[in-house]
Write a structure and sequence with these properties.
mainly alpha, disordered C terminus, 2 domains, single chain, globular
Length: 514
């Protein structure tokens, strides 16, 4: 007879504050990246219709790094530094160095390489933060915990996104520079962000505590483990059956990737879309390899565990995957193309050395600061709405507001009106950062919290890879390369995400209370 799980003690407001404060720094890094990297690439000679390809570092590094870091952080313990905090610190140190290097990259390809390093480092630091909430907070406080993270994400992004504008308008640093040189306002924004990133993450490292493995396990007693085909997930029988299933599924995915590649070749489709078909083939091969290992009885290794746990993910997680796919496809459309859309359709310039282009690019950073500010302000409003209605309605409503905000950029001609668009986007952003995670954590086994949080990131980065693969092609083929049409595509994607939210089962992880 299983004992009921012990309840984790409630944490105080300031304890939740301290454990979330590091996200202030992490978002400085992400916000500077999101608002300025396209500008840096174009300044260094990057083509607008290739921006999505240059940005592949962001989703690919997340796809690879986050589940690996989650897997190892689940298995890490140090008496002084804990379980997740060593990863916070290492990632912050590496990201800080990359932030100093990025605005000084002497050429386009070195800037792209630096983005790979920077995004990998940020992911190392960020991934355990989501599991940190699941580790330390009882179910009744998890929505508040993720809302606190959303608050710091919004607050950090407000300041970080506006830094180039602040340095130009308040400190009189130039926002233009000779050809191939990053403006001083952007450089000093990255330097400032690097310092804040490091200090904020170290605050959480030194001011927070973690439960040791024995205590954490005591809170998990009575959890009903995820089963596979009616068997314990770690039994040889389950691995054998899973191996056969993975061989078949992997072969199907591999074949699909090959057929898609042939279709692209036959119809002479642009080169970057091969990223999509190539990714399918790679995933199919990995699945076939994992299945083969299990069929041969070689299942006691991290690779097989990662692939098998992916196949056995909870039902709610699979449902949320669809919501996340369309939500993040919309966000990635916005991050890549807003600068180009605004500078061309509103400011009338596509020359990165012109004053009009740089004024438009600076205004985009202000707009990004506004939507992040809205996200911070509504972070604690969303849990209130969720209590009055439910979490699914709250998330769907926020996504619809985001769809309206993003699509409105297509028709706006007055830069000031873009601030109204950012209100809707801010609601969507705040909800995306909290509601899916609040729904998800209640369905996850505690001993795999870090890993599944990393896998959940698949459904953030896969849509980004898809966006990087097809957005440039779509704009060239059907929209004459006009970036503003990416805003419409993103708005439609938000609508699909909102509709699919209502199909999600929002219930906590099943526990045996007998």
């Amino acid at each position: 007879m299983n004992k009921p799980a012990n309840s984790k003690p409630l944490l105080s407001f300031w304890e939740i504050w301290n454990m979330s404060f590091g996200f202030l720094g992490i978002q400085f890094g992400f916000a500077l990246q999101n608002a300025n990297v396209s500008r840096i690439f174009e300044t260094l000679g990057g083509a607008t219709d290739k921006l999505a390809v240059y940005w592949l570092a962001a989703p690919v590094t997340g796809l690879i790094v986050q589940p690996i870091i989650g897997y190892f952080s689940d298995r890490t313990w140090h008496p002084r530094w804990g379980r997740r905090r060593p990863y916070f610190a290492v990632g912050a140190i590496l990201a800080t160095m990359a932030l100093f290097v990025m605005p000084n990259a002497p050429g386009l390809y070195l800037a792209i390489g630096t983005l790979w390093i920077m995004d990998t480092s940020i992911n190392i630091s960020m991934e355990p933060f989501r599991a940190f909430v699941g580790d330390n907070l009882p179910s009744s406080q998890r929505t508040t915990g993720f809302a606190m993270q959303s608050f710091f994400i919004g607050l950090g992004a407000v300041v970080a996104s506006a830094l180039p504008w602040i340095f130009t308008n308040w400190l009189n640093l130039p926002n233009t520079a000779p050809e191939g040189v990053i403006p001083a306002s952007v450089k000093w924004s990255f330097y400032s962000g690097a310092v804040v990133f490091l200090l904020a993450v170290l605050w959480t490292v030194f001011k927070s505590k973690e439960y040791d493995p024995q205590t954490l396990a005591s809170f998990s007693e009575g959890e009903q483990p995820v089963s596979y085909m009616g068997e314990a997930p770690g039994s040889p029988e389950a691995f054998s059956r899973r191996g056969r299933s993975q061989l078949i599924s992997g072969a199907e995915v591999l074949l699909g990737g090959l057929l898609l590649t042939f279709f692209f070749y036959r119809w002479d489709v642009a080169g970057e879309v091969y990223i999509l078909s190539g990714g399918l083939m790679l995933f199919g091969l990995l699945w076939v390899f994992s299945g083969g290992l299990q069929m041969r009885g070689r299942f006691e290794n991290g690779f097989v565990t990662i692939m098998s746990d992916f196949q056995s993910m909870p039902k709610t997680m699979k449902q949320l995957a669809v919501v996340q796919f369309f939500s993040w496809f919309a966000l990635f459309s916005m991050w890549i193309y807003t600068t180009s859309a605004v500078t061309r359709s509103i400011y009338g310039s596509d020359d990165p050395m012109s004053e009009a282009y740089n004024n438009g690019a600076d205004w985009v950073t202000v707009c990004f600061a506004v939507y992040n500010g809205i996200a911070a302000l509504v972070a604690f409003l969303l849990p209130v709405i969720a209590r009055k209605t439910n979490r699914k309605f709250t998330h769907a409503f926020s996504l619809i507001l985001g769809a309206a905000g993003l699509a409105s950029i297509f028709v706006i001609q007055d830069p000031q009106m873009l601030l109204l668009s950012m209100v809707g986007i801010g609601f969507a952003w705040s909800s995306i950062l909290s509601m899916p995670y609040a729904i998800l954590t209640g369905t996850l086994p505690s001993d795999k919290m870090g890993y599944y949080m990393g896998v959940f990131n698949f459904f953030i980065v896969i849509p980004q890879i898809v966006a990087a693969s097809i957005l440039g092609f779509l704009l060239r083929r059907w929209f004459d390369g006009e970036a503003v049409y990416a805003m419409l595509i993103g708005g439609l994607s938000f609508v699909v995400a909102a509709v699919t939210t209502f199909l999600v089962d929002d219930k906590d992880y099943v526990r045996n209370q007998r």
